[in-house]
Amino acid sequence: MGKTRRRVLYGLGLAGAGGGGYVLANDDVNLGDVGVPNNVAGPPATENKIGEVTDFDTPLGGIPLKRLEFFESGAAIIYPEAERGECHERLALLHESNSLGQKNDGDGSVSVDDSDALRTWGYGNFDENITIDMRGAISQKQGYPDRIFKLRSYPESGVCLLASSSKTFEVPESYMPSGSQ
Q: What is the enclosing helix (H) or strand (E) of 143?
């Protein structure tokens, strides 16, 4: 099989880490030479949809997503828009009380500080769906005051930071770790 441009999903397969970590690679991969090890798990199953969010318009113009679907397994599928613009290169999952900040890179440039994010992703090349273990990502931290989270779209650098936008939504109760509401 020759090299083709494909989105390859690798699970980090961290034993006991509660799942939730996936790396999306958008590189030329010769699938005949590269295999996924047997002990690497992918995202949870995307069967038995239990909810969705479809309105990603905000007072500041919206976030470039079509839809967010929740599944009984804890998985979520994020459906990005194909046209995003330069200020929407990455996506972060945060609790509503957290935010992205700015950090000085030491060379006079500013970049985004996404250390409060539960997970971050690059959008990919077009409108490729992003499947994540949202329950696993949420369960890695404890003590959330509520089930309100947000997806925040932002640039690689701080140039457009104010132009980035976020959308809050309520996750299913089953996505919350015990001890949280």
A: none
